[in-house]
Amino acid sequence: MPAHASRRNTSTVLRFGQFAALGTVAALILIAGVWASWGTAQHVMLTKGRERGTMTVTRCADDRCTGPYRPTSEGSTPRARVVLDGAVTVAKGRTYTVAVKPGSDDVVRTGAGGLLYAWVPLGGALLLASMVVAGGLRLTRLAWILGGTGLAMVTAAFLAL
């Protein structure tokens, strides 16, 4: 076998190895983004059978806001105090629609703002994965799509909240 054929085979194997390794890294980043988002998103998206209602913010401290909960769904019970993540951009004295996490007094915002906020980790993962896809895999069109989608998600959440 000529020397140049051996180098060509080695080069092909190395390119395939790079593609496989960086493709795996990009896939893991996206999986981590979905995993991080799903913890909140499931309560916002799958509301059938969950307690839903409104929360009036009375106090915010340490990135947590508290206030009374008034139910709007059948079978939900009123609570004197529920806890909402303060990073969701809430204002003291305002009332928000929320869903109660099962077995706790923690609530998540519902509606478009809550949904977009829940998927922000995926938006960040899309932005990060786009860098891996562009730089390592040299798939620029796919990278632009991933990055644009991630930027749109993060921007929409920022504007909605």
Your description of this structure?
By secondary structure, the chain is of the alpha+beta class. Helix content is 56%, strand content 20%. It is built from 4 helices and 6 strands, in the order αββββββααα. A 5-stranded mixed β-barrel has the order 1-3-4-6-5. Strand 5 (95-100) and strand 6 form a beta hairpin. Helix 1 (3-45) packs antiparallel against helix 3 (120-137) and helix 2 (111-118) crosses helix 4 (140-160). The chain is elongated.
**In one word, what is the shape?**
elongated
Order of the strands making up the biggest sheet: 1-3-4-6-5
Largest sheet composition = 5 strands, mixed, barrel
Stretches where pLDDT is under 50 for at least 5 consecutive residues are none
Bin the strand percentage.
Answer: 15-25%
Please estimate the helix content. Answer: 55-70%
N→C terminal distance: 65 Å
Number of helices: 4
Order of helices and strands: HEEEEEEHHH
Category by helix and strand content: alpha+beta
Radius of gyration: 22 Å
Number of strands: 6
The assembly state of the depicted protein chains is single chain
What is the overall pLDDT average? 91
